[in-house]
Amino acid sequence: LAGLVIMTLGFASLRLLGEIRVETVAFHAGSLLLSLLVFVFVGIGEELLMRGYVLNNLMLSMNRYVALVVASLIFAAMHLLNPHFSLITFFTIFFSGILLGMSYLFTRNLWFPIALHFSWNFFQGTIFGFNVSGRDDYSLIEQSRPRDTVLNGGPFGFEGSILSIGLILASAYLVWRHYSRMGDMGEAAGDPKTPPMP
Predict the structure, then answer these.
(1) Residue 133: other Cβ atoms inside 10 A
(2) Whole-number mean pLDDT of the chain?
(3) In terms of pTM, does the model score above 0.85?
(4) In b/e form, how buried is each residue of 62-84, taking b as 16+ CB within 10 angstroms?
(5) What is the band of 123 on the pLDDT scale with cuts at 50, 70, 90?
(6) Is the separation of the CB atoms in 128 and 9 below 8 Å?
(7) Which of 19, 135, 136, 174 is the 20 to 30 Å CA partner of 157?
(8) What is the distance between the alpha carbons of residues 160 and 175, in angstroms, rounded to a whole number?
(9) Nearest CA to 59 among 92, 107, 93?
């Protein structure tokens, strides 16, 4: 739901601002299913690596917030060779790493980051027609840009836009606030010396 809400807000805002145009709707069941499966595996694979392994191990040797920043920098660096990469996209993916890792700091559970990673990519690319990390694949809604701007993200896609950064930061704050209100900020949930839960 989080990925759907973020992408719906981004898509609707850019449509209202005239930053993107809807050209057509192209439904292909096979392509839709293939895209869904690809993004499921991408979400699982990248989260097992970046949050389950990298972030978890960094938390064993340093402050959890420092570990989150370092892991997010590594996550952003992994995308350096993606087509149309820029400074804005670096910060977008870095803050995405913060958002994806935020719940893991408190729960040591990968379900939320896996689900968010999947839904972010799936709704961004397959449903709303943005390029995903610079890659143009099948999408249900085929859209175009009157011009490339820092608002629509240009050829990199929504992740190359300053609007994306704003929505990611707002979402990360909401996740942090949720766990702080639940009282999950204590030593037991976040102590970097605590071994990972099975």
Answers:
(1) 22
(2) 87
(3) no
(4) eebeebbbbbbebbbeebeebeb
(5) very high
(6) no
(7) 174
(8) 22
(9) 107
